Amino acid sequence: MGTMGHEPVPCTIKSAVTLQVGDVRRELGRPGVVVIDVAFPQPIDLQEMVFKNYYAAFLTMRVQRRRSLNRGTEGPLQWVTCLQDYCLMPNPHTEDCSQDYVCLSRDQMFCDVDHVATMRLILRQPSPVWFNFSIEELRFYAQGQKIPQKGFPSWLSHPSPQEQPANLHEELPNPDKVSSEVQKMWVLTEMLQASQTAARIGRFDVDGCYDINLLSYT
Amino acid sequence: MVREALLKVLEARPDEPVAFLAGYFEKLVLSSPEAGDGGGDHHGQHQQRLVRALWYVHLAHHSHRTAFNNNISMAYECLSAGGRRKKPGVNGKIYSELLKRICRDGEVPEEIISPLLRKITCRDHEAVPFDIFRYGVLTCFVLLEFLAKADTLYDVLDDSSGVADKRVCLAVLGTLEEALQASNFSVPVRYLEVGSKLGPDCLALAMDRALVDRKVSASMNRGEFLRRATALFITKVKPVD
């Protein structure tokens, strides 16, 4: 994913609202639509959004953006639909893709998603099989925020075997054997680190002394 | 009893199953409570439990993780059983003794054992939870193997002349230390990085650089090499707290 290594845009994600006909407590029917509103403190030029699906089948996305007029003046805020019934689960009745991570970039939207101030995500789930549905771990990344990929680490581009220095000392120990032993030593250390426990004895003292505040009169 | 013995054979997969079984039953007879003639006193029982626990932890190699864990829990039970109270648990004293015995049996030099033991042993009066017990025993065994590898490495480095060049030794150990230092990558990337660092090419370069002035220099003896190598290992051991 291209989003690794930079920070998501701060935003306020309001809690999901389920839309249902009639009284939620008395009606037996399951809600088929969930609406999530997102507010950005600063309007953003959306590059991509990432989230984890939780049994939502279709996603419609509407954004409130400010159209800049010709002479650079700011126009009124207006709502536009930038995604209509985007399919998150190919078959709403089955588990497929029900908990996938989804990444939507601006190329997939119907219109420009610049100067976005508010966003409304409308999730639909026509199947009554699922008790509830939502999307989770919602994150937005703004355009131009991408940090350019750093150069390859030197160990990735280190001299390939044919560039190996030919003028090694005669008396040098066999590098293959040395390498194999050193690697084994590394593996042992690494393995031990991997099997560390979180268990503790629960000592209170630091270097043999107790913090006076830990002592009580009881 | 026979089933248990066979289970141990299957777990440990010794090279010589018959000898293993013979040893197993012999040990079983020798360490059974009835056999301990002089073991009537408290000290004798204590020793007996220790010997039995030692035997358990030696049954399987630590790479057979399930078997090893089973044996450790047997040893733990064996050490915590007995005594006057019903469930006395394992205290720091007997745990430390066990670790010392493991290291001594592996003929680890004293100056290498003590920094390790300082990190993983508990105080005499402390109750030792099983996880810490397991980690401590495992650490000892891994250290033994690490030492064996370091010993072989020294054999390679000294080129069968008996003494190895100090600069080469330091270069190799330095490379290992670098590789062990946690880089900020996640696991798979880090493994790749280490693989490249500890590859023959990189090591050859490091050793070559160390030898750049072709003068004869000081040598490093085996003891010092092992001590320095284990110091790298021991810094990675998580201390008991």
From TrEMBL, chain A:
It comes from the Eukaryota. Residues 152-175 are annotated as: Disordered. GO terms for cellular component: nucleoplasm. This is Nicolin 1, tubulin polyglutamylase complex subunit. The gene is NICN1.
TrEMBL record, chain B:
The gene is TPGS1. It comes from Sphenodon punctatus. This is Tubulin polyglutamylase complex subunit 1. Pfam families: RIIa, TPGS1_C. One of its GO terms (molecular function) is microtubule binding. Transmembrane segments: none annotated. The lineage of its organism: Eukaryota, Metazoa, Chordata, Craniata, Vertebrata. GO terms for biological process: adult behavior; chemical synaptic transmission; cilium disassembly; microtubule polymerization; sperm axoneme assembly; vesicle localization. Residues 45-238 form the Tubulin polyglutamylase complex subunit 1-like C-terminal domain. Gene3D superfamilies: cAMP-dependent protein kinase regulatory subunit, dimerization-anchoring domain. GO terms for cellular component: centrosome; synapse. Residues 9-28 form the RIIa domain.
